[in-house]
Amino acid sequence: MNFSTAEENYIKTIWRLQQSDSNVTTNELSAELQTKPASVTDMLKRLKEKKILNYEPYYGVKLNNDGKKVALSIVRRHRLWEFFLAEKLGFDWDAVHDIAEELEHVSSTELIDRLDQFLGFPKTDPHGDPIPDSKGRIEAINHFALTQLKEFQTAVVVNVADQDNSFLEMLKQKKIGIGTKLEIKQRFSYDGSVEIKIRNLPLITLSEQLAKNIFVKAV
Amino acid sequence: MNFSTAEENYIKTIWRLQQSDSNVTTNELSAELQTKPASVTDMLKRLKEKKILNYEPYYGVKLNNDGKKVALSIVRRHRLWEFFLAEKLGFDWDAVHDIAEELEHVSSTELIDRLDQFLGFPKTDPHGDPIPDSKGRIEAINHFALTQLKEFQTAVVVNVADQDNSFLEMLKQKKIGIGTKLEIKQRFSYDGSVEIKIRNLPLITLSEQLAKNIFVKAV
DNA sequence: ATTAAATTTTAGGTAAATCTAAAAAATATT
DNA sequence: AATATTTTTTAGATTTACCTAAAATTTAAT
Description:
Two copies of one chain form a homodimer. By secondary structure, chain A is α+β, with helices and mostly antiparallel strands. The first copy, chain A, contains eight helices and eight strands; from the N terminus they run αααββαααββαβββαβ. Among the domains of chain A are: 5-63, Winged helix-like DNA-binding domain superfamily/Winged helix DNA-binding domain (Arc Repressor Mutant, subunit A); 144-218, Ferrous iron transport protein A (FeoA) (SH3 type barrels, Roll). In chain A, β5 and β6 (194-198) form a beta hairpin. The radius of gyration of chain A is 19 Å and the shape is globular. The interface between A and B is medium-sized, with 18 and 18 residues. The structure holds a DNA duplex.
């Protein structure tokens, strides 16, 4: 089946939201897509007719198996283009998202499979998110939020939330990126902030809001 | 100013047609874009309001200077992507057009300028068409149709029409590509066909229709 | 258990880009 | 020059993807 750019944006967003939420609400989608709730309802009805999701009025929405397949192919395109932009064209990691947002809607399968090969079948995009393979298989996530890290345990940043430009700019300024090794020195229960140490750099404090969008793996 | 995909397709097509025609008619556009003449009229009115072309009812249309600039930037995107697809992803030259048709509408200037640099500032696309530079400058065309070539003069193919897939497939089958050296051995006035010799290959006859879409430079 | 608040849907409307059918204008033919 | 033909435009509809305002439903608070 064939999907418009608008439909693809809904599918991709529902997929992302249902990772954590299981049942996605109209308001969540409305906020995420910057459209009015009434427009979301409209689109959900249309996508339901295309049989890629389960939608019951007032009870939220969930992609079915077909929908998940579509979502994974969009995510694959997005992340491969992000990798291309960063690796081959030298874009900063905080600049790739918006351009990939447009490129992802070019839907030739042959294009994407050849791009994948050209890039050497990369496993993750520049934010550390896993890239689904041509069969739609995606690596299970085995990292956790920096807020979850135990004190004095060393970890490496493997993933960061891939949404907000101001967030990514802030990380760049704090010199935190994929592969950065760090350790929690202190944890403030008052506001949930954490004090971390990165090799060679002075101690810095991160707000809970920031820390919970940085994902690490123990080393 | 910003243009929709549909608008960009009109602008690009008007630009191409006005190279030979100067004043482009509604019917020509309708045929080229596979839309009804009534739809063309609608769009021309809208583009006139955006002040990128001169359009008088019943008298055809012509891009003005601003329109030409827009057209050249679309053509630049299209041809750079074609080059990328052929050179980096290994697509056949007859497969690149349709995919580039979609990629060309991703309009980030930074993306295109970085792509240009990554590709080594190529001068022509896989069909031999010149690629406008970042300032919109494009190489003047100094080749001529194969039908124009004098008998027994050697020439090299520098350009082929970039429209029809069946045309490009036929060229591939006849082993004619950019850079192919050839010579006209005989010319048949009855149907305008020409007999040509390509090094190592037996003599072949090309219809006028085919020959007039192959462009050469004397060597 | 009502009432209040928040969420979601319905109803009706708009703009872009297309269409068909009919009218108008330009071009070609006799 | 009058008529026929072709081309182009106008008028009115349709689909997609959005919107606002009002109604319906669910959830929270008293």
